[in-house]
Amino acid sequence: MTNALTHRRMIVFHGGQRSKVEGQREKNKHMNICIVGIGLIGGSIAIDLRNRGFAKQIIGVDSNPHHATIAKHSKLVDDIDTLENGIERSDLIILSTPIDSIKKLLPRALDSVTGTKKVITDMGSTKGGMSSLVENHPNRKNYVAAHPMAGTEYSGPLAAIGKLFDYKCAIICDKEKSSPQALKVVKKMFDVLNMKVIYMNANEHDVSAAYVSHISHISSFALSLCVLEKEKDQKRILSLASGGFASTVRLAKSSADMWTPVFEQNSMYVLEVLDTYIEKLKMFKAYIESNNQKGITDLILEANKIQKILN
Predict the structure, then answer these.
(1) For the whole model, what pTM was predicted?
(2) Of 127, 175, 258, 291, which one has the greatest count of Cβ atoms within 10 A?
(3) 242 and 194 in one domain?
(4) What is the largest CA-CA distance in the chain?
(5) Domain of 178, in residue numbers
(6) What is the per-residue pLDDT across 118-172, written as a single tens digit (0 to 9) for each?
(7) Do residue 84 and residue 176 come from a single domain?
(8) What does the alpha-carbon distance between residue 158 and residue 156 come to, in Å, rounded to a whole number?
């Protein structure tokens, strides 16, 4: 009897939980979302927010007519519209264009949400400049500065994939400057994307991004340039390239339109990490030149400690 009663209570409990989740999804379905920039990030967000029942309608805005057409025909979005109309028709506006474009779009978007509870967020990989830009805007509370730490080396709407964000980190910056309601909406969005949310201030974010993301791209670009230069003389270099080389230079396929503005806008911290990186390269060079095997081994063993963090 006890087991039967316990089992029945479990059924009621789980049924209640299921009803609560379903009820929340029904509520979310009344939310219209405008995604500005329907490339890898914007398109991938659209796929998962649609598939997971977060939104009623997804409206796309893109300055590239070709990308807009692909996004519409591939059903990444339900409709294509202008920025102003997209904001007017939506509850949540996601800016996922290159960072220099976001800096132009964000003030316009904030101007358009006066007197509303519409929420604006951006997916840009630098935050200090963005924070300063709109710090004194009267609608600053409607904006949540965010950065999902996910991506691939590809770009455009055809690069969009489902589950891109699953189990990755999403950073929300300067949360105290956003309204509780705006934070709740963006946090819920990241929950639906299966992301772990971390809160930081804008400058902390930019330092961290320079060290864990921006330098990786610069290193990949630089290595690719070195090999391509040598390939002019020795045609067989790339034919000998293994999986290790391919994975190391994978990021060299990334878009210049995306990354040039990032390096420019986060230049202070990018230069800081470059100085540190160059210092480590010089240490390897010095030890190799002097045939200091112990020095080389010590550097490698020290570098191996990264496994404890990444595992």
Answers:
(1) 0.85
(2) 127
(3) no
(4) 83
(5) 2-201
(6) 999 999 999 999 999 999 999 999 999 999 999 999 999 999 999 999 999 999 9
(7) yes
(8) 6
